[in-house]
Amino acid sequence: MMHTFPRKEKLKSKKVFEDLFMDGKNISEFPIKLIYRNTNFKDGASIKVGVVAPKKKFRHAVDRNRIKRLLREAYRLNKALIFNNIEGNFAFLFLYLGKRQPTFDELDIAMKQLLAAFLKKESHESNN
């Protein structure tokens, strides 16, 4: 599978963002929290992803942008874990919870654990 993150996989809909915060399920693997929700997209994408870095903890936009770039990259490299193993369409929102600027390795490890936890939780729920 290609390690790409095309435009149609980016979460942009304000309504979907609001739905995620209202009734999305979440999993945390410090320093990342995943909020996700089963949903359908009109453009046929199976997963759409958004990333968030808190303005409260990171005042400077350059710091938030770096965190978001690292989160997107960690997701992009590990998304094959999910695409090959789930049924259904999901909206994902990755929130950065740490108080300091992360390294890529920290985020990469946390992302792998988070995606594994998501698969475990979802496969368990779909079997019930």
TrEMBL record:
Highest taxon listed in the record's lineage: Bacteria
Pfam families reported in the protein's UniProt record: Ribonuclease_P
GO molecular function, one term: ribonuclease P activity
Keyword tRNA processing: yes
Catalytic activity as recorded in UniProt: Endonucleolytic cleavage of RNA, removing 5'-extranucleotides from tRNA precursor
Root EC class: hydrolase
Keyword Zinc: no
Entry EC number(s): 3.1.26.5
Keywords: Endonuclease, Hydrolase, Nuclease, RNA-binding, tRNA processing
A Gene Ontology term for the protein's cellular component: ribonuclease P complex
Protein's GO biological process: tRNA 5'-leader removal
Family, per entry: Belongs to the RnpA family.
Protein's job: RNaseP catalyzes the removal of the 5'-leader sequence from pre-tRNA to produce the mature 5'-terminus. It can also cleave other RNA substrates such as 4.5S RNA. The protein component plays an auxiliary but essential role in vivo by binding to the 5'-leader sequence and broadening the substrate specificity of the ribozyme.
Known partners and oligomeric status: Consists of a catalytic RNA component (M1 or rnpB) and a protein subunit.
Name of the protein described by the UniProt record: Ribonuclease P protein component
